[in-house]
Amino acid sequence: MSHTRYNAHTRLLLAGVTALLLLAACKKTGAPGPVITGLRNYAPAPADTTLTTLTPAGQWVVIEGHNLKNAVQISVDGVPLSFNFGLFSDTTAIVQLPTVIPYNTVAPADNNKIAYVTTSGSTTFSFPIVVPPPGITGISNEMANPGDSVHITGANVFLLSDLHFGGSAVTSFNTSSDGTTVGFVVPPSTTGGPVSITTKSGTTATPFNVEDSIDGVLCNFDNVMTYQYWSAAMDNSGIDYPGNRGQYAVLNSGGPLSNNDGSWWNSGRSINCNPAQWVPAANLGDPVGNWALKFEISVPNPWNGISIFIVPNGNWTYLARYEPWKATSAAFTTTGWQTVTIPLSSFLTTPSGGKDGTGNAASSLTTLLGSTGNTGVNVYVMNDGAAAMSATGVVAGIDNIRVVRIK
User: Fold this and answer.
1) 73-92 pLDDT, tens digit each
2) 64, 215, 323 from 80: Cα distances, Å
3) Could you read off the pLDDT of 125-156 as tens digits, one per residue?
4) Which residues contact 388 (CB under 8 A, 6 or more apart)?
5) Phi/psi at 274 (nearest 5 deg)?
6) Which of 187, 96, 192 is nearest to 142 (CA)?
7) 192 near 214, Cβ under 8 Å?
8) How far is CA 315 from the centre of its chain?
9) Residues of the chain whose pLDDT is less than 70?
10) Angle at CA 104, nearest 5°, toward 99 and 105?
C-alpha cells in the first residue's frame, strides 16, 4: 500500500472514529443531521452556476443544503477533503476538490458519492463524478530503441485500455496508483508516429512524433547533417553511451571551468549547426510556446554547476539555459539517453545587468528565428558564474536536435 493511500485511509479512519464519538455525544440533543441538496461552482455571479457533474482537478465548489456547519469529515469518492470552517454556513460549505482521485482503487460503495459527516449525523449524496481525460506531459526517451524501458508522465492515466508508441501498440504496461506515470518496454517494431493513450474517459495524443529522425530535425549527426565539423567530436560507440542511435556529438568542458569562463570555442565545448528550418513557414504566426526544441542527452558522469546555452544563429539576442543540476540535490546524471524539451518561450533575452537568457521571451516566432524561420543552432558549454561553480565539469552525448510542435 502506498504512503499516499495509507495516509488517506488513516485520515479517513481517524475522522470516522471522531465522527462516531461526536455523533454519540449529540444523540441526546436531537440536533438534525446534514442534508445536501446540490452543488454549484465557487465563482462570482454569473459564473456561480449549478453543477451537474464533477471533474475533480483541485477546483473549488459550494456544497448546498442544510445543517452543514458543524462538519467533521467530508469525502469525495472516498477521498477525505481538507476544509476551513470559516468558509461554512448552515446552508453552504465551500470546499476544494482533490487534485487527483485514485480511480483505480475507489471502492464501489464510494463511487460517485459525496459523504458528509457533522456532529449531528451523516449523509451521502449521489453525484456524477467524471474521470478527467488523460494528459501527457513528458516522455523519458522519444528516440528509444526496441527493448528499452520508457516512462510517460502525465495526469489521469487511470483504467488505461490502449497505448501506442511511435505507431506500434504497446500490449504490456504499468501505471502508477496516482495516474501520473505509465511505464513500458518499446515494442520490437516502431516507426515515426505520435504517442497516444486511451482510458475510460478519453484519448489523448502528442502533437509530435516519436521515433522520427526526419520531421523537424535540425541535425541528427546521421542522415540529417547540418553539423560544422570544427565543433565537438562525434562518436557512435555504445560503450560510453549505451542505447545510442547511430552517431552523436560529445560535449566536453575539459574538466571544471573557472569563473566567468565563456570560451565556448575551445575544443569540445560547442555544437554548431548551419541554418535549417526550425518552424514551417506556414506556422510562423503560431504562439512562441506552441513549439519546442528537443534533443536526447546522455550524461554518464556527475555534472554540477556548468551551463549549456542553446543559441539560435549564435547571435546571443535570445538563448535558453539548460541546467538540470539545479533541480537535483546532487550532481546530475542520466541512465542512458533521455529526452530534453525546451519550449521556444524559454529562449530569453539578457536583462540589463543580469545573466544571459534570464530576461524576456520573444514576442513572436519571427522575432526569435527571423522572418523565414530558417536559422542555425549553437550549443555552448559555459560557466557564467562568479566562482568556479563545478568540481566535475560536464561530458555529455547530444543527439537528434529538432524543433516540434508541442501544443
Assistant:
1) 999 999 999 999 899 999 99
2) 18, 47, 39
3) 999 998 889 999 999 999 999 999 999 999 99
4) 256, 257, 258, 259
5) -70, 165
6) 192
7) yes
8) 30
9) 1-30, 386-391
10) 90
